[in-house]
């Protein structure tokens, strides 16, 4: 394999006698060619992600001191995380909220994606565009729209009041965990529908026919064929919703109230009014590690389940 | 590049496809660059000074003289609390003018990102009340200051007179009233709320830095937390909630009460028997202000009598220009809870005492924990 590559490499190398050293390198080595093509992406990754991430990691081992930083390396911030109960509580609340949002979003979006994949035969594109329609407005605007819907004098409360079902406006609708979950589930719906749709669309229809021929009813067929085959879509949809929502801070800041605050709000405050950047950095790193761990567990679990049911 | 008759030479077959594409490209770059050139020619918004301020100060009424001179308003950038603003500027955000308050003044000066204001360049400086200039940390020396005072006022309780039944005198206890649990609101910034907590706990402003004070204030803040429907730095949120009846009382500044009253909402800005929290805010110039001349114009415009009239009449705040008060009679001023002598108001309440950066970080960390329920 290696010999062959080398031979073909040298053959093409002689074909371009006028090429400079760089040209010759490119012709000779497939690896060099690959890296050259990757360069823009690698440079971007390095400058925009790896360097800031490195700074964040280093900073998380510093401590804040007045306006400046004490740059002696210490694990003080990480110890604080385990010593003071607020951090753990906010982190678990965050994962609770994001988990609820993920479940709600996938459950609500699955039927929609299913419908478009199996029951819409013409103008599929039009349907998909319709589904992404809420995304044409800004995220902030959607959050404020929910504030109007859920508010004290909002759409839901006024409707229920005028029908006479309630006597005083429901106060738990706004400034609560529920408000955050509802808003996030709506805001991230399109991120769940599209991967679900793609994986459902790919399912070979003849498998469904075969299942029916062999005596499976619609329900059994769904659980034995459709669901396992669409699991990749479910996994990617869940991760696409779960990961960004854990870091969200606008929605809880505007709709969460005192009980709906998430870890993102606290991280933002560490970099803002609290003015303790190292602690904020440490919290961000911990959040990232937790997300990585949870995602890993989730993927393993779904793979295991998939093996069991197929 | 040679000038050629492009279409003619193409017809004649002299021009290669590459040469023609090249001319097309240059034409395209030219067209795309046109908007840039036009922008430079007229007064572009980036030529205006940038004013980094609290919400509510980004309105044309406060910049009438500036607008007359420059034909446009300054650029605005908004913050919800002055700690957040300082952190952002220390992180590299360069503005021309910003808007801190007396309690932050020494720390803002220490941060080293501001320059002294040459008062000789401000046409309205002669009318500025001297008692507002001589703030701790301002180091006024007759010709320059760090902070040009602009507005002053109180942090107190705005409550619905038709929904909140006051027991006895108006007091800070109103925001700790269990009868209205879930219908009380508060400012989220520790710069206001923590100090009001100190008043409620009976801690003198001069002792707010002690450990004992921390424990006492934390205790009252924890007691209040379950009663609060929302903590927010957005005064509009509090005003709307008060106006709909979602909240019956909230910690606010003067402007919320004045604005709601002008809309006919039955609210009152309380005069708590323990005293309100009082403050003076002003303007500082960034040391790297890109538009220094216009920065002075922003400050001069804010110190003008026109702006003062608006501040007093529409927002209910005190203004630093003594001539602004001449437009109002004593009765109107009393109705707004103001006086043409700022000392009357500032000394009747609890005037904030500047603290160290360590104190601010410690206080904000603790207050965030309390707000989250710990």
TrEMBL record, chain A:
<comment type="similarity">
    <text>Belongs to the binding-protein-dependent transport system permease family. CysTW subfamily.</text>
</comment>
<feature type="domain" description="ABC transmembrane type-1">
    <location>
        <begin position="91"/>
        <end position="298"/>
    </location>
</feature>
<feature type="transmembrane region" description="Helical">
    <location>
        <begin position="281"/>
        <end position="305"/>
    </location>
</feature>
<feature type="transmembrane region" description="Helical">
    <location>
        <begin position="179"/>
        <end position="200"/>
    </location>
</feature>
<dbReference type="GO" id="GO:0005886">
    <property type="term" value="C:plasma membrane"/>
</dbReference>
<keyword id="KW-1133">Transmembrane helix</keyword>
<dbReference type="GO" id="GO:0055085">
    <property type="term" value="P:transmembrane transport"/>
</dbReference>
<dbReference type="InterPro" id="IPR035906">
    <property type="entry name" value="MetI-like_sf"/>
</dbReference>
<protein>
    <submittedName>
        <fullName>Putrescine transport system permease protein PotH</fullName>
    </submittedName>
</protein>
<dbReference type="Pfam" id="PF00528">
    <property type="entry name" value="BPD_transp_1"/>
</dbReference>
<feature type="transmembrane region" description="Helical">
    <location>
        <begin position="221"/>
        <end position="243"/>
    </location>
</feature>
<keyword id="KW-1003">Cell membrane</keyword>
<dbReference type="InterPro" id="IPR000515">
    <property type="entry name" value="MetI-like"/>
</dbReference>
<keyword id="KW-0472">Membrane</keyword>
<feature type="transmembrane region" description="Helical">
    <location>
        <begin position="95"/>
        <end position="118"/>
    </location>
</feature>
<keyword id="KW-0812">Transmembrane</keyword>
<feature type="transmembrane region" description="Helical">
    <location>
        <begin position="125"/>
        <end position="145"/>
    </location>
</feature>
<feature type="transmembrane region" description="Helical">
    <location>
        <begin position="37"/>
        <end position="62"/>
    </location>
</feature>
<keyword id="KW-0813">Transport</keyword>
UniProtKB/TrEMBL annotation, chain B:
<dbReference type="GO" id="GO:0015846">
    <property type="term" value="P:polyamine transport"/>
</dbReference>
<dbReference type="InterPro" id="IPR006059">
    <property type="entry name" value="SBP"/>
</dbReference>
<dbReference type="GO" id="GO:0042597">
    <property type="term" value="C:periplasmic space"/>
</dbReference>
<keyword id="KW-0574">Periplasm</keyword>
<protein>
    <submittedName>
        <fullName>Spermidine/putrescine-binding periplasmic protein</fullName>
    </submittedName>
</protein>
<dbReference type="InterPro" id="IPR001188">
    <property type="entry name" value="Sperm_putr-bd"/>
</dbReference>
<keyword id="KW-0813">Transport</keyword>
<keyword id="KW-0732">Signal</keyword>
<dbReference type="GO" id="GO:0019808">
    <property type="term" value="F:polyamine binding"/>
</dbReference>
<dbReference type="InterPro" id="IPR006311">
    <property type="entry name" value="TAT_signal"/>
</dbReference>
<dbReference type="Pfam" id="PF13416">
    <property type="entry name" value="SBP_bac_8"/>
</dbReference>
